[in-house]
């Protein structure tokens, strides 16, 4: 049975979605394998940028070598999200430090004496403007040790939606708009699209990393079979909903998108038994130039 609970609007529900957890753990395992392959024998400190509710920390803890046990610095712009991360990963641990900071201002918030081996940005890079992405990556480069690693992933980029799935996305929005119209909900046409509505090409991300002083070590796209619950969970997240239906109130947008997805999912889903919409996830591994 699909989740029928009232939307909280936060990322936490989606962060627990099995498909979301699985792809992040796949990406993290790939990152760790690459680090080890390139001679990284130990990691002392990991910086989690736009850390959210702690998904990447938990994925690393499950996948990294047991002997590593690094310290973590978790940074996010939202105090409420930081508190949720503390609850999820353990705020009392001496290995965990939480700071409130925008991603592009993070380098000025950290003690320059801290040696950071790895920086990760899980499923958040697409929320930044291109200018902020460049500032963020340059800041990361400045605080990483020479030869340190920067790993990030996203499912909001140019290739993420296969051509054969575009009709699903168009009708999802069309039906949701009709639902809102039928309810008499008025759109604020002066509101601008969030950055997550911009699907930038892979080359944008790799070029930005290179221009920030990184060498690109690996680029990978992974197909994720997103099921109905995946879409109900992500559509219930207010930031996603406001990106898909910009100009409407977040709660109205989320409710309408979830109702829309329930109506049209079977029409566009593929697969014999377990129906899904194919979606691609981008993973990039970069290394600070020595």
Automatic annotation (TrEMBL):
Cleavable signal peptide: none
Gene3D superfamilies: Vaccinia Virus protein VP39
Top-level taxon of origin: Bacteria
Database matches in Pfam families: Methyltransf_25 (PF13649)
Domain Methyltransferase span(s) in chain numbering: 46-148
Name recorded for this polypeptide: Methyltransferase domain-containing protein
Species whose genome carries this gene: Candidatus Taylorbacteria bacterium RIFCSPLOWO2_12_FULL_43_20
